[in-house]
Amino acid sequence: MTTAEKTKITVQVIVNSTKEKVWDSWNKPKHIVNWCFASPDWHCPKSENDLQPGGNFISRMEAKDGSFGFDFGGVYQEVKKHEFISYIMDDGRKVSIEFSETPTGILVKETFEAEATNPVEMQRDGWQAIMNNYKTYTESL
Question: Which InterPro entries does this chain map to (predicted)?
Answer without folding.
Answer: ASHA1/2-like_C (IPR013538), START-like_dom_sf (IPR023393)
